[in-house]
Every structure is written in structure tokens, then in C-alpha cells.
Amino acid sequence: MALGRRLKFPAQANQYRGTPRQQSSAEVQRADEEKQGLWTRAMSMQQSYGNQATGKMWQDIQGKQHSSEASKGVKTPYEELVKWLEAEASQDHQQVLWMQFERLSPAQRQAVLLEMAGSIERLKLLMNAPMNWERLVASIASVEGVRLQPDEPELEGNANESGAQATAGTVDVTGLLNPYKDIVLWLNYKANKQGKAELMRRFEMLSIPQKKIALHKMLNRRKLVFAGFTEAMSITILLKKWVDWGKMLSALNEAELVKLDTTDESSVERYLDQEETGFEPEEEHELEEDEDFFAFGLMQGRGEENQVNAENDIRKMLDDHEQLNWLLFGIKAKPNDKLKESSLSAVGTPELIVDRFLKIDVNLPPKAREEARTRQLKAYGYYSSRQCYVYLLTIIVSHIFERGVIKKEKTFIQLMEMLGLSAKKPTPTKDMIAHQLRSSQ
Fold it and tell me: Do 416 and 343 contact (CB within 8 A), yes or no?
């Protein structure tokens, strides 16, 4: 079916398209110039004659044979779908939209198709449903300009897979050069997929200097490199890659307090120079993540505003060692030798930890306690005790790692010792911290 109105598409070419090894640079340049010429002609034809007339004339230009250029570089499950999409575009006179899809990198094309299908298991079902061109427009817009690795679309976590509704948002990168620009586009893409658009809206409210500082603080690094940033900001949850949104939240909280002259281009550099002693050395820690501890329901299924407020509350609570000890061990005291002796049997059960967090009276009768828990879970935006527990433990593990392993704070080193971990080599990883918390319950 053809849309009853003209579609507007960004004309910018994607600069991250992969180049086949067998092609010379001259051949690639000629191919790009030819494709750019076809794109310009198609846009001009659509503006002059509309979608249907463009489709007929395009068939005369291209002939009856499909080019299938867009199927090159994509994985096998996508090849048939790409060819089907090309045929649908020809039939419904959507050649301009098709060319926009064709200009994407292979990884971006796969991301578009996965976004439309919802999951890799439902890819072929797209061919049995009416073509939704509006959805294709939105999916293309979500990936344009975003640098993606070949396997990234299939490995990335998706809010839709955990039942939450992903909210699409745009981001303004005006005034940001690379690597800042690439990083911000990548973060916005991930936020839309992982139900964190609210955090990106907060990021958007920052000044340009504050945005740059926030990105540095997310990694606690003086120097930013796109590949290093995306790797360090990713955590593995049941074999899926998610952004560590807790890091972003902490960085936003800090960046919002920094006041710099927005007209002074060197203000950020001077600030970073002053903060450099607090940054990690360039030989970064290898952050290993637990692949079965974190659940795919992490921070999903909850209202975005509730998420941000709850994350702030939890971070503040975790900064108070007495409250953290209460949450985990049911004791409001500093770690000491006496506590260490019994610590491994003192970590609360998941249900008990959730009740402590929700401030539920543990002395209530079982039925009254369950009713109180249900009310509090709903008030905080969680749909189950399990989701709340996983959410809490995810942030706790990240917090203990950051404060005890990275910053080497005495209180958190003592906390790790209570869990049976040594701050010395081998350096504890997030996986090890998570394992000790689970095995101690």
C-alpha cells in the first residue's frame, strides 16, 4: 500500500558503511558517487511527481531486475527479508524510502528489521503481515548516524523483550564533535531501545560543557574513545548487552552541579585538568560481568520518572554504609571482625532484602506483610518482588565494585571482606561480588 502523503527523509549519507575488502578505494568511491546520483534523482522525481509516478519511472531506470545491494553484508536470516522488502517497496512505489534503507550499513539494516519484528525469532513473520511503511520510516530514523558493530543489533538488550514500552526520543548533537557526537547518538539509540529515554531527556537539558563532562564522568576517564566507551558502558545480562544506566545516572547527578562558562571553549579542558587526579589511569580495569545473575527484567517495566527517582534514592542509601549493611545483613553497624565471622550466613533472602528496601515491617503477619509488599511494589513501579530484587542487586553490585574495587574506599573494602572477598589480587569482579551475594543467602 502506498502512503497518501509525501515522506520526508534525511538526505545525509551514513558514513559508517562497511567497505568490502575486495573493492579498491576507487571502486568504492565510484559506487558511492553512482548511488548518490541515483538518490538525488529519486528525491527530485518524488518531489516533482509523487510516490506512484516515481515508482513507475524508477522501474524504467532500474529495469525489472532487483539490485539486491542491501542484502550484501547482512546475515543469512536477513537476506530473504531484505529482498522481500525491496519487492514491497517497488510494488508500493516507496523507492526513495528503499534507497534510504539501502544506504544504511549492514548492521544498521539488521537493527531496522529487528526493530520492526521485535525479535530475531519473529523476523520472518514480517513477510506475512501488511507492510507498515510508517514503522520503517521510524526504524530507519532511529539508527541513522549511529555506529553499530556487525553483531550488535542481535546482542543488544531490548525493553520490548521484558514487557516494557520503549519510548522513542531524539537528541540534539549540535556543538558536539567526535567522539562526543558519536557517543551521544549511540547512547540515545540505546536509551530508546532499553526504556531509558527519561535519562536522555535529562542529558538534553545540560549545557554543552556539562554534556561533555557527564560523558567523561560515566567512564571516570580523561580521554574518551568511542569503542572504549561503548565497551566499558556495556554489561551482559543473560547473554544480552545492556548499557550500565546506573553509571549514567551518577554522571548526570555530578554534571548538573558543574557550572562552566558556556561561551568559553576551553572551560571543559580546564575542568578536566583539575579533575584528572580523580580519573582512572588509562590502563583500565577489565570489568567482567555476570552473565546469569543479571535478569533481562533489569530496570524495565517501570515508569521512567519512577526509575530515575528510585535510582537516586538507592544511590543515596548505598552511600550510607549503615543503611547498606541493614539492607544486606539486617544490621545497622560498621563492619568489624565479629560481624565478619558470621557474615556469610547473614545476607538476607531476596524477599527479606526487598521488604527492607520497601520499609515493610518484618514483624507483620504473613498475609498482612504480603499485602503491604504488593502495595509498596506498585507504588515504586515494580511488577514483582523478583524484578525489584534483581534491580536492587544490580545497582548494589555495581556500587560495591565502583567504591570498593575502583576507588578503594575502606568501608566498602570491609564490606567485600564480609562477603569473603579480598580487595587484593585477584581483584574482585562484578561477577565475583554477585556470586558471593547469591551464595550467601
Answer: no
Instruction: Say if residue 425's pLDDT is above 80.
Output: no
Provide the H-helix boundaries in 296-409: 304-319, 321-329, 337-342, 350-357, 366-380, 385-400
Distance CA 294, CA 57 (A): 53
Sign of CA dihedral 401, 403, 406, 412: negative
d(CA 7, CA 243): 33
Please give the model's pTM, rounded to 2 decimal places.
Answer: 0.53
Q: Report in angstroms the alpha-carbon separations of 51 from 78, 95, 103, 116, 248.
A: 26, 8, 19, 22, 43
- What is the pLDDT, as a whole number, of residue 342? 44
Report the pLDDT value the prediction gives residue 123, as an integer from 0 to 100.
Answer: 82
pLDDT tens sequence across 293-327: 333 334 444 444 455 555 666 767 777 777 888 88
Residue the block writes with cell 518484618 = 362
Q: CB count, 10 Å around CB of 282?
A: 9
Work out the burial of residue 61: count CB atoms within 10 Å of its CB; fewer than 13 is exposed, 13-18 middle, 19 or more buried.
exposed
Closest of 434, 194, 198 to residue 301, by C-alpha: 194
b vs e for 108-128, b when ≥16 Cβ sit within 10 Å of the residue's Cβ?
bbbbbbbbbbeeeeebeebee
What grid cell was written down for 45?
522525481
Percent of the chain with pLDDT over 70: 67
